[in-house]
């Protein structure tokens, strides 16, 4: 696969990205013989007792897209990611991730994708270096590859001095850097990232954004879940707005003509649009 | 003061909701009833078999003091620990960061809440359980001295932890005081006269004042020494992961290695596993001497200690599952069954040897004969394997949830009692041990290990499904 996680060498053309993706055998997108889908879901449903988290979610994410799932807290974003990565079983509906059904083969999906959870999965008393060795051995990476990629990521996110500090003693921002590195360590074709910029300082946020664009340009797919409209508008090729477990709007931020993503968001989730106008944020 | 009352009320309400949400309100509310029933049955059985009431009451005070010591570890909450350990589940404590509340005062209220909570939920039914042995008037006094004893244990831990926040000098002072107390007890000085138990034995002003002095002194030490801003420097470590994997290459098990590293680097290291087992050794020594006083015969130390020390499986498994569960690995291609397998391996490496070492020490100390020692060894290993399987079956990787979940706790108690009581009875009455009976006990040990294996094998697929619901 194209290198992005390790060396950061990428091809700039998204047209080429689709061509690369087409060789990987993902599902063809309905109605477009030229596209391939890294992710496809149909009528996904999930409830927790009386609470409906997903009420029939259907979406396609073509390979090579930086896709954003935008929604307020509790809209169903994290549930979607957990179903697509095999952590949860849906009540109904189907899903395909890189051609694999996550409900039937959760381990197979997680072997192929990278996941950055919203709540950090703490490596507890291990140091980052040990944790990366742990992730490397789980993912069958040789030690030299792990070392090389860890050094690259530590430079990129500026935490080389913390590689031997116990995870429990790292700041939340440093812990987030560790989890970002772990998500990309095996150089996956597709990553699911939930609020990737949380707790990061502006310089590192820019480094992560730059990397994500390069990663996408290399033909890989990003599924980004966020409630941060600025992040979605700045990064994503396409944004789907989810509200109460359903998709309510789709937009391409680059093609928004005068309308701001914030306005669309407030309109679709039923909030008072004047509040958003006063806030003056978003695009 | 009104702020203190509001915080205390919020803490109690939050504690109730936390447990009732975890286990269901009725299951949680039924816990005191269950304690009273089981305790009452035990007291009745001990009374019927001729145990001296004062011995049983003394035992209850010892156990409650140990429980207080353990509960006092909440005093370990330094600034970061308070956020990490309690912040996620205890919003009121977490509020110290955002509200104008002094952390020292908040910790004091938290401890006060714990005393009140355990006084009603655990110690009141425990005192009521003594109804078959004591007149009604003494039950109230017993409750008072049990609560006092719990508070004493709590204050002792909090004082020690507070001293520890002052660095090495504080730790040295704490160690010196502990050693001095131990030496005084060994030298035969009347240390117990300054405890709540002495107040129960001889109620009066003098004994009440004597019992009040130690907790008040400990509280004063805690208040003076506690440094809420104490934060140890960030710890670093050489990469031990690869070295650990090389030690057990055949298993090729990253989660096992992570588990061992977590246990070794968390507070107390591997010693805490041994310490937990050591407490059980002390409890079993007390029970064995109690049994000897009841039946008037020398019990079989191998069988008795081997059976009781099988319970170390539960405390060890608790440590092994303290720092992760299958959801920790949800972002990696690690199946739930692999997490359980790793815990089983860690248990085999850490838990079984610890239990056997404690058993060997106890058997040597009490001079177990060879047949008795072999039977006890088989029972110790077999019961550990059985309890491991039983705990996995009932609680998965969260054995702490036994606490206050009446149904789970009752199931666990029954599951433990079914094999433990018969072999303990043999240990108490079958001396000297015959060869056929020793062989039967060895077979029983092996059979228990087999049952544990089956329980484990059936439980893991069930937990795998449950974690994905």
From TrEMBL, chain B:
<keyword id="KW-0472">Membrane</keyword>
<feature type="transmembrane region" description="Helical">
    <location>
        <begin position="374"/>
        <end position="395"/>
    </location>
</feature>
<protein>
    <recommendedName>
        <fullName>ABC-2 type transport system permease protein</fullName>
    </recommendedName>
</protein>
<keyword id="KW-0812">Transmembrane</keyword>
<feature type="transmembrane region" description="Helical">
    <location>
        <begin position="140"/>
        <end position="165"/>
    </location>
</feature>
<feature type="transmembrane region" description="Helical">
    <location>
        <begin position="437"/>
        <end position="456"/>
    </location>
</feature>
<feature type="transmembrane region" description="Helical">
    <location>
        <begin position="172"/>
        <end position="193"/>
    </location>
</feature>
<feature type="transmembrane region" description="Helical">
    <location>
        <begin position="407"/>
        <end position="431"/>
    </location>
</feature>
<feature type="transmembrane region" description="Helical">
    <location>
        <begin position="297"/>
        <end position="320"/>
    </location>
</feature>
<feature type="transmembrane region" description="Helical">
    <location>
        <begin position="115"/>
        <end position="134"/>
    </location>
</feature>
<feature type="transmembrane region" description="Helical">
    <location>
        <begin position="205"/>
        <end position="226"/>
    </location>
</feature>
<feature type="transmembrane region" description="Helical">
    <location>
        <begin position="58"/>
        <end position="77"/>
    </location>
</feature>
<feature type="transmembrane region" description="Helical">
    <location>
        <begin position="270"/>
        <end position="291"/>
    </location>
</feature>
<feature type="transmembrane region" description="Helical">
    <location>
        <begin position="28"/>
        <end position="46"/>
    </location>
</feature>
<feature type="transmembrane region" description="Helical">
    <location>
        <begin position="346"/>
        <end position="368"/>
    </location>
</feature>
<keyword id="KW-1133">Transmembrane helix</keyword>
């Amino acid at each position: 696969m194209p290198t992005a996680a390790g060396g950061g060498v990428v091809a700039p053309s998204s047209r080429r990205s689709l061509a690369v993706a087409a060789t990987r055998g993902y599902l063809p997108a309905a109605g477009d013989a030229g596209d391939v889908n890294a992710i496809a879901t149909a009528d996904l449903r999930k409830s927790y007792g009386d609470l409906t988290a997903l009420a029939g979610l259907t979406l396609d994410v073509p390979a090579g897209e930086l896709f954003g799932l935008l929604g307020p807290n509790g809209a169903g974003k994290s549930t979607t990611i957990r179903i697509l990565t095999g952590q949860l079983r849906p009540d109904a509906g189907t899903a395909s991730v890189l051609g694999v059904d996550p409900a039937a083969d959760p381990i197979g999906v997680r072997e192929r994708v990278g996941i950055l959870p919203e709540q950090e999965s703490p490596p507890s008393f291990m140091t980052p270096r040990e944790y990366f060795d742990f992730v490397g051995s789980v993912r069958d990476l040789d030690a030299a590859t792990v070392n090389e990629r860890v050094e690259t990521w530590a430079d990129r996110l500026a935490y080389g001095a913390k590689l031997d500090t116990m995870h429990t003693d790292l700041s939340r921002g440093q812990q987030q850097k560790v989890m970002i590195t772990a998500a990309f360590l095996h150089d996956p074709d597709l990553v699911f990232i939930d609020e990737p910029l949380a707790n990061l300082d502006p310089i590192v946020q820019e480094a992560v954004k730059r990397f994500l664009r390069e990663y996408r340009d290399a033909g890989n797919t990003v599924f980004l879940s966020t409630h941060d409209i600025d992040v979605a508008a700045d990064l994503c090729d396409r944004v789907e707005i989810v509200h109460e477990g359903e998709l309510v709007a789709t937009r391409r931020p680059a093609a928004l003509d005068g309308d701001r993503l914030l306005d669309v968001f407030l309109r679709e989730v039923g909030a008072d649009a004047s509040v958003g106008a006063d806030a003056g944020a978003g695009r | 003061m009104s702020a203190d009352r509001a915080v205390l009320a919020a803490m109690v309400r939050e504690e109730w909701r936390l447990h009732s949400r975890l286990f269901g309100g009725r299951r949680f509310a039924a816990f005191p009833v269950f304690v009273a029933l089981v305790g009452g049955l035990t007291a009745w059985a001990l009374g019927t078999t001729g145990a001296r009431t004062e011995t049983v009451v003394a035992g209850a005070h010892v156990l409650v003091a140990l429980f207080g010591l353990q509960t006092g570890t909440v005093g370990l909450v330094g600034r970061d620990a308070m956020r990490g350990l309690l912040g996620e589940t205890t919003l009121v404590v977490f509020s110290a960061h955002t509200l104008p509340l002094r952390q020292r005062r908040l910790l004091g209220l938290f401890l006060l809440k714990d005393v009140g909570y355990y006084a009603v939920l655990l110690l009141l039914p425990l005192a009521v359980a003594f109804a078959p042995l004591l007149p009604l008037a003494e039950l109230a006094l017993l409750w008072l001295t049990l609560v006092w004893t719990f508070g004493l244990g709590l204050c002792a831990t909090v004082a020690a932890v507070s001293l520890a926040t002052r660095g090495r000098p504080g730790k040295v002072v704490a160690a010196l005081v502990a050693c001095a107390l131990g030496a005084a007890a060994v030298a035969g000085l009347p240390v117990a006269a300054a405890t709540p138990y002495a107040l129960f034995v001889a109620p009066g002003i003098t004994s009440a004042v004597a019992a009040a002095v130690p907790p008040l002194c400990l509280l004063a030490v805690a208040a003076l020494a506690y440094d809420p801003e104490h934060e140890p420097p960030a710890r670093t470590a050489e990469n031990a992961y690869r070295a650990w994997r090389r030690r057990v290459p055949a298993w090729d098990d990253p989660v096992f290695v992570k588990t061992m590293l977590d246990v070794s680097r968390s507070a107390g290291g591997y010693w805490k596993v041994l310490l937990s087992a050591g407490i059980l050794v002390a409890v079993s020594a007390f029970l064995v001497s109690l049994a000897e006083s009841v039946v008037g015969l020398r019990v079989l130390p191998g069988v008795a200690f081997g059976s009781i020390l099988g319970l170390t499986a539960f405390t060890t498994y608790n440590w092994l599952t303290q720092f992760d569960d299958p959801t920790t690995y949800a972002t990696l291609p690690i199946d739930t069954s692999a997490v359980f397998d790793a815990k089983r391996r860690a248990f085999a490496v850490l838990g079984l040897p610890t239990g056997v070492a404690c058993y060997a020490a106890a058997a040597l100390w009490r001079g177990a004969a060879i047949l008795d020692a072999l039977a006890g060894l088989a029972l110790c290993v077999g019961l550990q394997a059985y309890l491991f399987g039983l705990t996995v079956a009932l609680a998965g990787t969260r054995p702490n949830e036994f606490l206050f979940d009446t149904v789970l706790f009752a199931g666990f108690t029954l599951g433990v009692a079914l094999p433990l009581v018969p072999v303990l009875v043999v240990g108490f009455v079958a001396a000297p041990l015959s060869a056929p009976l020793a062989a039967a006990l060895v077979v029983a040990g092996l059979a228990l290990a087999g049952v544990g294996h089956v329980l484990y094998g059936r439980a893991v697929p069930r937990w795998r499904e449950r974690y994905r619901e």
